[in-house]
Amino acid sequence: MSPRVDWGAQALVGRGRFAAGLRLWRAQTTQQIDPGDATTAQVGATSTELVGHGRLATALGCDVVAVASAGLLHLGYHPDA
């Protein structure tokens, strides 16, 4: 496996101390199982979540926030055989 930069996005709508929204994250890399074989596999993870934020307190210009999320995770592997 090799490290790489991945991408994600989050959109929140809020009023007052609370906000809610969606989060999408995608990561992908290539993997070589046998060093003697030139075949590589693509491995990926995609996450879609509902997100909730609630500001608990503000001190010295910083917010203390509680974050909760729930969603789906898809793990993909190609070729799959």
Description:
This protein is mainly beta. The chain has one domain (7-78). The protein has no helices and four strands. A four-stranded antiparallel sheet has the order 1-2-3-4, with no helix packed on it. The model has no long low-confidence stretch (mean pLDDT 89).
The helix content, as a percent range, equals under 10%
Order of helices and strands: EEEE
Oligomer: single chain
What is the CA-CA span between the terminal residues? 18 Å
What composes the largest sheet? Answer: 4 strands, antiparallel
Global Rg? 19 Å
Derived from helix and strand composition plus strand pairing, the structural class reads mainly beta
Described by the principal axes of the CA atoms, the overall outline is elongated
Helical segment tally?
0
Compute the average pLDDT: 89
Lateral arrangement of strands in the main beta sheet: 1-2-3-4
Name the poorly predicted regions: none
- Share of β-strand residues: over 45%
Number of strands: 4
Question: How many domains is the backbone divided into?
Answer: 1
Write the layout of secondary structure elements.
Layout: E1 7-15, E2 18-31, E3 41-59, E4 62-78
Antiparallel strand pairs: 1-2, 2-3, 3-4
Write a compact overview of the structure shown.
This protein is mainly beta and 81 residues long. The chain is 0% helix and 73% strand.
